Amino acid sequence: MAETRYGRAIAKALEDAMAEDPAVILFGEDVAKAGGPFGATRGLLERFGPDRVRDTPISEAAIVGAAVGAAMGGLKPVVEIMFMDFITLAMDALVNQAAKARFMFGAQGSVPMVLRTPHGGGIGAGPQHSQCLEAWLAHVPGLKVVCPATVGDAYGLLRAAIDDPDPVIVIENKALYAAKGELPDQPEKTPIGKARLARPGRDATVVTYGASVFTAIEAATTLAKEGIELEVIDLRSLQPWDEGAVLASLKKTHRLVVLHEAVEAFGVGAEVVARLADIGFDELDAPLLRVGAPFMPVPFAKSLEDRYRPDAKALIAAVRRLLA
Amino acid sequence: MAATIDLVMPKLGLTMTEGTLVEWKVALGAAFAVGEILFVVETDKIATEVEAPAAGQLTEMLIAKGTTVAVGTPVGRYTTETAAAEIPSPKAAPIAAPQPEPAAPQAVTRRDGARVIATPRARRLARDQGIDLAALTGSGPGGRIKAADVEAYRPPAPAMAPPEILAPMVLVDAFDPTALIALHRKLKKPFPAFLVLAVGRAFASGRIAFERGGRIDMTVAARRGLTAIAEADFKTEATDLLVIDVGKDGPAEFRPSVDATAPIALAFGRAKGERAPFTLVADPKALGHEAAFALARRLRDLLSDPLRLLL
């Protein structure tokens, strides 16, 4: 057991997967010589050589298109899009190729690729480098989407994603790369589709994922001083997501709020809430709420961005509504 | 020629010995056709509609609804033009045992017509526990009823009916009024005044009301005797002993009813010769047997020998 940074846990997952399976290859912008824009691929070029760890031009369409082809050809590419905002340029390869191949070819083959990309703001990166667009991808049948919050899941979900025979998007968070946490010497893989109980509680359930898990824990710690016990569920996987775990928690607390950094409208929260309004209807003792960013581009100015990102205060206000 | 025929409590099953007439379906005096439902009988959990054996007219209802009578007891009478020979024995159509009502949708409105605002969980809890949400006050925003409101709800206890006196104690006795009548004539004082005096002496303590001609004539406190007549008031509030003098034209014997407001009643019947009857009726909880015997004995002694009133 050793304290490890989130970025380092990703590098270790890549290293272990590449050591285990020669089909695993890595490419993207600055992933080789520079060791990744956030240092998540540091040391891999040295260990595995330029055939397996490649820098690419600034062309997201080329990166992801090549990954789909490599995966169809039998490799297990792990590619990186430096900022999730630029996934726009790779959407055809992802949505129309990677996500459809298994279905269109009658399950004769699959696309065992992984796309890593960071979302989220808080570093003053502006409207085009801070977005959380996971809902777009979770909306596409054929894609899996995971979003690790902890150091352990940064490792475990990436390993599971690489093992998975279908395309998996691993969404990291820029604010988390430097976060520290414990990582066992022999870390476990995290099954895709299983949520994690981040904090047991009694009075209300917060469903969240990624860096927002820590916002929820912060709010829970504050509210605990008043005797209000929040249960925090870290979804970890957004597609598929663990509705059984969420329903079990709702059956306990009868109140639920979804927290995410993404814009509130038409997001993951909308899906969770709509589903629970159906399967959890008779359990509800309060309206189902969402806390997310306002419906606007991410502002650049720090003062504005601070107010834009949902914080513990916003979550606490929502919990008070639940308990009213 | 019209014949008058009894309607009887039908025997609806081998083991049936009595039945309760739960409802008359035809009004008194109303005409009915053959086969029309006349009344409903309930035994255990089976309700049975009893049909008219012939066309006719209901002329008498012998028992009120809710009354239980033995099989064969006449419950009513009707007249009919149908020849007796043509009237079949009464037919009864059983009504299936009342099924538990399917879970009725929760009342969506309050008595004032406002929609009930409740969380889905509160609705489910109320449904499971058979609680009418309209009876609850919600503690949530805008009066929304939450699960906690349902859990905290305690249905109001059913109003306690005053305990019924199933069988009041009745004591019948008499005194010889010869001496009292002589005294009454000699002193030229009203006869009831002597009754007041005697009862006041005989009854241990408490408030006594005297009723004549159907209204409370006076109320006095026990043991105050004749003084009390002068101080008589006419309040009709709760009393410990209600004394009724039926008067010279009253019945030979009268058994008054008692209730919670007047648990003991004493009625003086019409005197005949050497026998002036009186009847004591009491809720056994208000007056024990021994006390009743003693009261009757004191009354008999005082009234038969009115000189004792001096002592």
| Overall outline of chain A | globular
Average of the residue pLDDT scores of chain B: 79
Q: Kindly state the number of beta strands of chain A.
A: 14
DSSP, total strands of chain B:
15
CATH class descriptor name of the largest domain in chain B:
Alpha Beta
Distance between the termini of chain B: 72 Å
Strand content range of chain B: 25-35%
Give the terminus-to-terminus CA distance of chain A: 43 Å
The largest pleated sheet of chain A is described as: 7 strands, mixed
User: Uncertain runs of chain A with pLDDT below 50, 5 residues or more?
Assistant: none
Q: What structural category do the secondary elements of chain A indicate?
A: alpha/beta
Average pLDDT taken over every residue of chain A: 97
CATH structural architecture of the largest domain in chain B: 2-Layer Sandwich
Unreliable residue stretches of chain B: 103-107, 224-236
State the shape of chain B. flat
Instruction: Please give the count of helices of chain A.
Output: 12
Number of domains of chain B: 3
Helix content of chain B: 10-25%
The interface involving the most residues is between: A-B, 9 and 11 residues
Query: CATH topology of the largest domain in chain B, what is it called?
Result: Chloramphenicol Acetyltransferase
SSE order of chain A, as H and E? EHEHEHEHHEHEHEEEEHEEHEHEHH
Report what the structure shows.
By secondary structure, chain A is an alpha/beta fold. Chain A contains twelve helices and 14 strands. The radius of gyration of chain A is 19 Å and the shape is globular. Chain B has 311 residues and is α+β, with helices and mostly antiparallel strands. Chain B folds into three domains: 3-94, RNA polymerase II/Efflux pump adaptor protein, barrel-sandwich hybrid domain (OB fold (Dihydrolipoamide Acetyltransferase, E2P), Beta Barrel), CATH 2.40.50; 103-152, Irregular (Dihydrolipoamide Transferase), CATH 4.10.320.10; 169-310, Chloramphenicol Acetyltransferase. Chain B contains six helices and 15 strands. In chain B, strands 10-15-14-13-11-12 form a six-stranded mixed beta sheet. In chain B, a hairpin with a 7-residue loop joins β14 (264-268) and β15 (276-282). The longest helix of chain B has 16 residues, at 289-304. The model of chain B is unreliable at 103-107 and 224-236 (pLDDT under 50). The chains are: A alpha/beta (324), B alpha+beta (311). The A-B interface holds A 254, 281-286, 321, 324 and B 119-124, 140-141, 146-148.
